[in-house]
């Protein structure tokens, strides 16, 4: 089942290697990042960070919960 979740989450990652996820899926996003890049990602709390040129998605498309973290 985790493999299916990884495939679904991978479709939600954009071309820059970023994952925007809810708290429930942050661990999965970290695992996917490490599998792909063989390096530890940065995890950004979207509640504490504002971006001047980018509006992050409002929802974790994996589950439709509120997006809380950017894994990059």
How do the strands and helices of this protein lay out in sequence?
Elements lengths: L1 H11 L6 E3 L4 H12 L5 E3 L23 E3 L1
Antiparallel strand pairs: 1-3, 2-3
Give an account of the 3D structure.
Strands 1-3-2 form a three-stranded antiparallel beta sheet. The model has no long low-confidence stretch (mean pLDDT 85). The N and C termini lie far apart (24 Å). The protein has helices spanning 2-12, 26-37, and strands at 19-21, 43-45, 69-71. The chain has one domain (2-71). The chain is built from two helices and three strands, in the order H-E-H-E-E. The protein has 72 residues and is an alpha+beta fold.
Identify the notable features of this structure and list them briefly.
single chain, 2 helices, alpha+beta, 3 strands, three-stranded antiparallel β-sheet
């Amino acid at each position: 089942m985790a493999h299916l979740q990884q495939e679904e989450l991978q479709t939600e990652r954009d071309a820059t290697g970023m994952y925007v996820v809810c708290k429930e899926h942050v661990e999965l996003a970290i695992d996917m990042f490490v599998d792909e890049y063989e390096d530890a990602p940065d995890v950004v709390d979207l509640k504490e960070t504002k971006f001047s040129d980018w509006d992050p998605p409002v929802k974790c498309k994996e589950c439709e919960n509120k997006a809380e973290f950017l894994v990059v």
